[in-house]
Design a protein that fits this description.
Length: 177
């Protein structure tokens, strides 16, 4: 019996270390309450999240709390209440979007909060991530904002040359020339 309990303890220690490492390395860690989901609904959620590049895992609250403390995010432990799952993703917006979209059809799924780039968020703030535009759209908007002043400067610098060309063209077409 001593050997079995030692093996289980080592497995728990390894799991805590793995979860802490994922919290540190993932752009997003979402804590989800899944009380009331059927096995079929849970499988649907897992498939949906996997397709979005998000790993979903059911975790004991004590394990998640220890992992959060080990990773330096003690505040994340207060989100552990009842049946808890954690979702790790590279893109916080897509992870939050998939969880909240699934929760619209399955109100028993609750986004309790999460960790995004080292900041602990409550459920409301984590759900607000789902309202942001996709990453590619944000990058395109940023590029457009950077491009606009450059285009304006180019237009201002080009205007005198254009005016000179118009005047020369008018002089060339005038009857006295």
């Amino acid at each position: 019996m001593g050997k079995v309990s030692e093996e289980r303890r080592q497995q728990k220690v390894a799991l805590v270390a793995e979860l802490a490492g994922r919290m540190r390395s993932s752009a997003a860690t979402l804590v989800v309450g899944y009380r009331g989901l059927t096995v079929q609904e849970d499988s649907q959620l897992r498939r949906r999240l996997r397709a979005a590049g998000v790993q979903y895992r059911v975790v004991k609250n004590t394990i998640l709390d220890r992992a959060a403390r080990e990773a330096g995010f003690q505040a994340l432990g207060r989100l552990c209440d009842g049946p808890t799952a954690v979702a790790f993703g590279g893109d916080p917006v897509s992870a939050a979007r998939e969880v909240t979209a699934f929760a619209k059809d399955h109100p028993q799924l609750v986004l309790r909060g999460g960790l995004v780039d080292g900041a602990v968020l409550d459920g409301e703030a984590a759900a607000a991530l789902a309202e942001l535009p996709p990453r590619q759209q944000l990058l395109a908007q940023a590029a457009g904002m950077l491009r606009a002043p450059v285009a304006a400067v180019a237009a201002v610098l080009h205007a005198p040359l254009r005016s000179l060309a118009v005047m020369l063209g008018q002089l060339a077409q005038s009857p006295g020339a």
